[in-house]
């Protein structure tokens, strides 16, 4: 039965009281027993060096230190973590023989408490012989570059070429070819809470219990299980109730889960490790930095017929799962919101002496949106067509959806022109252009920038396998991959209260609130009438390989499963009620906690129904109907890649129209984002407040990457930004005034009509801000090709012009 | 020196408490792990993020930059002590109403910093709220909800104190 009511809303969220009273339960808040040992890592001070010797004696002599383990010890119980690319250099999470980046774990000290463990780290005696390091992706790809993995013979760990449509003809026939070279920087979205793991080995079952603030994807659990040499189900993964932000980075905790679990096995005691901030910046994960060339075949009227892109992706010292997926988002939606029917992409992943990469809010999105949007601005500049008009001309039209792109992505719905127009309304109503002219008249450097991008969400796990060639995927014995799905469980207890369990652990997104809204709508109840369990214990929580909080998939996939479970439970309740009330099920409505026979006075409460079904089961005729239901939902249209590398990369495709206003101090050249407009198509909105919150946070993440945050290395591989003193996160003073709105181009494919929206402006803001800086520097013909946009970078543009 | 333990008495959230700490034990660790005030969060341990902020004799301090022994005979307020009788403090309630929190990790430090800010400046402008809160990092909210919440809380507190004053004069 189809329920058609709006989602009930509440002020605040179900999660808020717990967090505001200081009763959150994060990993470091969990109680541990007295036998628990505390771990601290000894990390490499060198970017590249041979480990000449490790002497544990002094460390073991420290009061409170119980054990010191190196790769040689851990190797007895821990294998390398399998990689997506066969034959990639071994990745063990801890240095073997040599160190390859500053901050790489070299040894683990276990002690009575963390203070003693740190004493052990200071006492540990390790001799290194320094080797030449290489941190720049192009330098590392050169034949003469120092090799990170000697046996591998090259630093280019993966490369592939993709071709869609007919790029040759398009370039041959182009009226104009516009090309640019770009550099996207290395940063990570640094959740405020660092990693934490508490692990225990259970010899009776040869299994592990691992507590950790792991966000998924659970496709990494088999990777971990393989390394720990146990079947997947022998790892009981427990994610605490609260995670202090994740942003993709907390997918990459898995090597540390492996290392700490291995320590616990060797020490025969539980082991706890909480990462500190310096460790996080040096040794967790980051997004990739990318050097790229992108060029377009353009017609006289500014239409882009084809794109060629050459991507050199810096994956750090190891190519670890799920890399090289960073490239795949850039590949599968390379045409963004534009009708670009041909493309050729050449991509290489290169190893350097820097922190290995992984998911970072947007994962591959910010990198390619930066290139594509910089390219659109360049096309506007070279053709003399207005920046916004160029975009409008190239947009897909509302009537064309659903639209199959040349890469196989199946865009569900959209009204790009309408959504952009809504954003322009904000711009006009707020008088942005007038403000720019006034500020310029008073001698200030001010500019407005634009980015219009597609937000793919709820990714198809199959897109990862584009890393392999079609021939490899066609081989016998190869297991194809596709889809994204998840579970929900819902139960009516004997007192008539509904309880829902989901398989994702959020990190502040408000999952419990959104789930309660979906269920409350189905049963015509209030949001607070629903209890939600949104933490994971794999011993009891249903989960799948694609489970997890990533790729903006929650509302689409988990929301879909919850909706299905709720609807099916409602059907069961109608059947039970039909025998109690003696009416056909399709004549029964459920509303406000009551079950009523339509057009009659006959009714009973949820509580009465639950009581009867629980206590008087024998008298009910149908034994199949239940008071609890488990449902799964697999997002539609997601198949494995075809033999021409075409794949629908995601379940939904939202749209983002962003504008940024930037001011540059004319004396110090310090840039500042004054205002930001974000109008995003998110499909049906379950909770507008949560969406606004996601977008506001995304804007500031994108702004951080555009202007401030940089994991910067010197030539020897030393990291220059290993504390919050040097790694600059935007504060409330740097955050712009924001106008945020959502636009509803309901998805025709998803259960709720929703589209994922969690990564949003974290992907588009770097492009919008770069565009605004160009505009602010228009008198100097400014053109930003590299992020972050620092005062020296601006100075170079200004000095270069004069 | 390391092994030495020092007994200390202090007051936390209005209650006298005592404990034993090494001279080098950080106040943040002592509050969290010895006394169980896990609402004190640690985001950087080098004084930048503000997550560990507590009020020491009503002044905001970064508990990761103090040793536990320095809190001897002082009175501390943590987030756990802000609500009275299960009722949210107006600042907490404003954070709830204005979506001033997502993951909640920065929240205890944000709320306590805001309490102090409003005490010093009962009628703050948006600019001074942004400046006043700029010593605390939040990675989730983009500060939108936080700034709105602090502005709203200041108004609420002002209204409250005005109505209290009217009651007193009646
Ligand atoms: S933990 Fe104390 S300021 Fe960050
Ligand atoms: S709410 Fe997550 S850091 Fe502020």
UniProtKB/TrEMBL annotation, chain A:
Q: Which UniProt keywords apply?
A: Molybdenum, Oxidoreductase
Identify this protein by name.
Xanthine dehydrogenase, molybdenum binding subunit apoprotein
A Pfam match is: MoCoBD_2
| Domain (Aldehyde oxidase/xanthine dehydrogenase a/b hammerhead) ranges | 21-132
SUPFAM superfamilies cross-referenced by the UniProt entry? CO dehydrogenase molybdoprotein N-domain-like, Molybdenum cofactor-binding domain
Keyword Oxidoreductase applies: yes
**PANTHER family, alphabetically?**
ALDEHYDE OXIDASE 1-RELATED (PTHR11908:SF132), XANTHINE DEHYDROGENASE (PTHR11908)
**From which source organism is this entry?**
Chelatococcus sambhunathii
Parts of the chain that traverse the membrane: none
UniProtKB/TrEMBL annotation, chain B:
Keyword Cell cycle tagged: no
Q: Keyword Iron, does the record have it?
A: yes
Listed A to Z, the keywords are: 2Fe-2S, Iron, Iron-sulfur, Metal-binding, Oxidoreductase
Signal peptide stretch: none
Q: Where is the 2Fe-2S ferredoxin-type domain?
A: 4-82
PANTHER family in the cross-refs: OXIDOREDUCTASE WITH IRON-SULFUR SUBUNIT
The protein here is known as Aerobic-type carbon monoxide dehydrogenase, small subunit, CoxS/CutS family
Task: Provide the species name.
Answer: Chelatococcus sambhunathii
């Amino acid at each position: 039965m189809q329920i058609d009511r709006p989602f009930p809303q509440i002020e605040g969220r179900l999660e808020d009281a717990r967090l505001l009273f200081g009763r959150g339960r994060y990993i470091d808040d969990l109680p541990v027993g007295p036998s628990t040992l505390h771990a601290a890592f000894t990390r490499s001070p060198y970017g590249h060096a041979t480990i000449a010797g490790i002497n544990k004696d002094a460390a073991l002599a420290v009061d409170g230190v119980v054990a010191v383990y190196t790769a040689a010890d851990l190797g007895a119980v821990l294998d390398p973590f399998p990689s997506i690319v066969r034959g990639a250099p071994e990745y063990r999470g801890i240095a073997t023989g040599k160190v390859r980046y500053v901050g790489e774990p070299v040894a683990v000290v276990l002690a009575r408490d963390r203070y003693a463990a740190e004493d052990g780290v200071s006492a540990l005696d390790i001799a290194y012989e320094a080797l030449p390091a290489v941190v720049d992706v192009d330098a590392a790809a050169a034949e003469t570059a120092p090799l990170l993995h000697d046996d591998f013979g090259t630093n280019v760990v993966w490369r592939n070429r993709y071709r869609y449509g007919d790029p040759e003809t398009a370039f041959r026939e182009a009226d104009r070819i516009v090309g640019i070279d770009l550099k996207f920087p290395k940063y990570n979205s640094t959740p405020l809470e660092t990693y934490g793991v508490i692990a225990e080995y259970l010899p009776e079952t040869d299994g592990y219990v691992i507590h950790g603030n792991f966000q998924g994807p659970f496709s990494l659990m088999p990777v971990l299980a393989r390394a720990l040499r146990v079947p997947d189900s022998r790892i009981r993964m427990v994610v605490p109730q609260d995670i202090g932000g994740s942003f993709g980075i907390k997918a990459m905790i898995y090597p540390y889960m492996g290392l700490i679990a291995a320590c616990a096995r060797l020490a025969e005691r539980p082991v706890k490790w909480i990462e500190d901030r310096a460790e996080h910046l040096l040794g967790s994960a980051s997004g990739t930095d990318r050097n790229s060339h992108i060029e377009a075949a353009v017609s006289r009227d500014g239409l882009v017929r084809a794109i060629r892109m050459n991507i050199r992706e810096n994956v750090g010292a190891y190519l670890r799962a799920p890399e090289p997926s960073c490239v795949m988002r850039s590949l599968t939606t390379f045409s963004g919101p534009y009708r670009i029917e041909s493309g050729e992409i050449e991509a290489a992943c290169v190893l350097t002496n820097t922190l290995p990469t992984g998911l970072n809010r947007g994962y591959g999105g910010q990198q390619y949106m930066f290139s594509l949007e910089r390219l659109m601005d360049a096309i506007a500049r070279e053709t003399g067509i207005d920046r916004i008009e160029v975009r409008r001309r190239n947009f897909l039209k509302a009537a064309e959806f659903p639209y199959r792109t040349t890469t196989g992505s199946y865009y569900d719905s959209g009204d790009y022109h309408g959504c952009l127009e809504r954003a322009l309304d904000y711009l006009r109503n707020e008088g942005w252009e007038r403000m720019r002219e006034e500020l310029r008249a008073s001698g200030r450097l001010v500019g407005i920038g634009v980015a219009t991008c597609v937000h793919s969400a709820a990714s198809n796990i199959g897109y990862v396998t584009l890393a392999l060639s079609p021939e490899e995927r066609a081989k016998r014995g190869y297991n194809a991959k596709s889809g994204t799905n998840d579970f929900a469980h819902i139960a009516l207890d004997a007192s008539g209260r509904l309880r829902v369990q989901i398989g994702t652990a959020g990190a502040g997104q408000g999952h419990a609130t959104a789930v309660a809204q979906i269920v409350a709508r189905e049963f015509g109840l209030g949001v607070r009438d629903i209890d939600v369990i949104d933490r994971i214990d794999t011993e009891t929580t249903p989960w799948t390989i694609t489970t997890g909080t990533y790729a903006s998939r929650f509302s689409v996939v988990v929301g879909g499963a919850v909706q299905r479970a709720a609807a099916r439970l409602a059907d069961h309740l109608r059947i039970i009620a039909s025998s109690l009330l003696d009416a056909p099920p399709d004549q029964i409505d459920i509303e406000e906690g009551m079950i009523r026979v339509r057009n009659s006075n006959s009714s009973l409460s949820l509580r009465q129904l639950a009581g009867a079904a629980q206590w008087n089961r024998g008298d009910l005729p149908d034994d199949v109907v239940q008071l609890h239901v488990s449902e799964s939902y697999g997002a539609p249209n997601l198949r494995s890649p075809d033999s021409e590398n075409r794949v629908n990369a995601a379940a939904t495709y939202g749209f983002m129209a962003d504008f940024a206003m930037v001011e540059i101090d004319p004396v110090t050249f310090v840039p500042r984002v004054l205002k930001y407009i974000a109008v995003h198509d998110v499909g049906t909105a379950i909770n507008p407040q949560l969406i606004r919150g996601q977008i506001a946070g995304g804007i500031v993440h994108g702004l951080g990457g555009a202007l401030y945050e940089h994991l910067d290395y010197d030539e020897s591989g030393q990291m220059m930004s290993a504390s919050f003193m040097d790694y600059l996160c935007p504060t409330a003073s740097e955050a712009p005034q924001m106008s945020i709105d959502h636009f509803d181009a309901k998805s025709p494919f998803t259960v709720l009509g929703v589209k994922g929206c969690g990564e949003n402006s974290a992907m588009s803001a770097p492009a919008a801000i770069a565009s605004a800086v160009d505009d602010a520097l228009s008198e100097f013909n400014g053109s930003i090709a590299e992020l972050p946009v620092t005062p020296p970078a601006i100075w170079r543009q200004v000095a270069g012009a004069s | 020196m390391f092994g030495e333990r020092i007994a200390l008495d202090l007051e936390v959230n209005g209650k006298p408490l005592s404990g034993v700490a090494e001279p080098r034990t950080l106040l943040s660790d002592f509050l969290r792990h010895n006394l169980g005030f896990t609402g004190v969060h640690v985001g950087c341990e080098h004084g930048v993020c503000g997550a560990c902020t507590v009020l020491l004799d009503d002044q905001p301090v970064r508990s990761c930059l103090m040793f536990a022994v320095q809190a001897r005979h002082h009175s501390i307020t943590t987030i756990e002590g802000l609500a009275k009788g299960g009722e949210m403090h107006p600042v907490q309630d404003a954070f709830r109403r204005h979506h001033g929190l997502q993951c909640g990790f920065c929240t205890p430090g944000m709320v306590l910093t805001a309490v102090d800010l409003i005490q010093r400046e009962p009628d703050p402008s948006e600019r001074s709220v942004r400046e006043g809160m700029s010593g605390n990092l939040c990675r989730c909210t983009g500060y939108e909800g936080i700034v709105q919440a602090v502005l709203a809380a200041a108004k609420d507190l002002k209204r409250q104190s005005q109505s209290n004053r009217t009651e007193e004069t009646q």
